[in-house]
RNA sequence: GCCGGGGUCGCCUAGCCUGGUAGGGCGCCGGACUGCUAAGCCGGUGGGGGUCCACCCCGCGCGGGUUCAAAUCCCGCCCCCGGCGCCA
């Protein structure tokens, strides 16, 4: 059983070099790894040989009755032991270095991924819906549609929609990030009343639709061990996103993807059990350490939110079709909500180490004049399963390889709420609730049903 | 948190006291036999190295230690089960 990256390293290093180049990383890593791997194998042969000689003597001692002969053999074993320990120490050192570099390798970029070092190079693959475009954003809109050869029908607005952060805080007055900043820090929030109902309704909507498609509903652990986390993410993500529980080997999950990947940690999966399709629901905790001052206002980019996540264990030959299935599932959810979006094929430089290919679903934000990421769907092929030791056992000949894993957002609550606040806003500040959510709000007497209304202005101001 | 019991190949289990190449059952894969199927029979069943044949190394929760030699003895840690305590 060989991991795809190791196989490429040994048999076809040019593929790896090319992949690293597309990610704007140093391709010489491949050459360092190759020589290290060669050195490791050579050293391993030497160590194994000494171990063998030592084992032979050790075994013969057990059979030897004559005390003189025994003594002689023990002396010989002791001598070999010294040699063995010296070599083993060297092997251990090389092995650790090799392992470290191997685990720093990002997944191989799929051939269909556009090359580029920023999201400018991500390529839209399709558009859906009829965006509402404020007059002044027309040029920007064309830049994001026609430039890519798409003719997207739009509704021209001659009034400027209020941004989601202002809607939340000032128009609807259903969120308080100022107080939350005092209590917990920036990028936290209090949500109230109708927006809380909306948050829940969105999650249940996603759960309802996906479980109907046969996905198994999972409530996973919200904290996981370091070992599992390192199987799922790369060092960069770890440092930018992950909160640690002090004094314990526990980390807050940044998405349900993490514990769902751990569900089959160290397991063998029979091929006829695949694909295993899961949806997890969980809070997500993220440091947003690399975000700087981006999206500081409102609830677009926060330290904590709720998400329904799709996660699939698949056979290698079916994983690329399943990636399409996952992004289509997400599209159906956003179509149901009536949010106009585009799907982009994310550029090689923006992929993240685990992913071989990634689609983002971006919703048009009328107050910003931009498509913004709501969903991310990745095929991580065998990158996570190698690290988590999740094997696929083929019936034919009991052959073992690694499963493929995939993940995709279904609904991330707060971000989707920002999209709703901007897209379904009326000139008077009323926010119309997507019809599809109604059945999930209906059972609750205090939940909003059709719309969320702005706080009435003070009489004196009118 | 305390006390006791336990963690062995995909699953179950023997071996641990008394150190000397981890045995059996189930499942699965393959083979021979067979009109077909099953039973029964034979072989295989983790990771790595290797001229990918032979063969060799490593693997008994994890990490150390003792020893020529550790599943076995010693120390630390993790997890599971039972009892007590605490508790939404």
UniProtKB/TrEMBL annotation:
InterPro entries registered for this protein in UniProt: aa-tRNA-synt_IIb, aa-tRNA-synth_II, aa-tRNA-synth_II/BPL/LPL, Ser-tRNA-ligase_type_1, Ser-tRNA-synth_1_N, SerRS_1_N_sf, SerRS_core, tRNA-bd_arm
Assembly notes: Homodimer. The tRNA molecule binds across the dimer.
Positions contributing to L-serine binding: 255-257, 286, 309, 407, 409
Official protein name in the record: Serine--tRNA ligase
Known pathway: Aminoacyl-tRNA biosynthesis; selenocysteinyl-tRNA(Sec) biosynthesis; L-seryl-tRNA(Sec) from L-serine and tRNA(Sec): step 1/1
Record bears the keyword Aminoacyl-tRNA synthetase: yes
Taxonomic placement: Archaea, Thermoproteota, Thermoprotei, Desulfurococcales, Pyrodictiaceae
Enzyme class: ligase
Keywords: Aminoacyl-tRNA synthetase, ATP-binding, Coiled coil, Cytoplasm, Ligase, Nucleotide-binding, Protein biosynthesis
Coiled coil residues, start to end: 70-104
Pfam families from the UniProt entry: Seryl_tRNA_N, tRNA-synt_2b
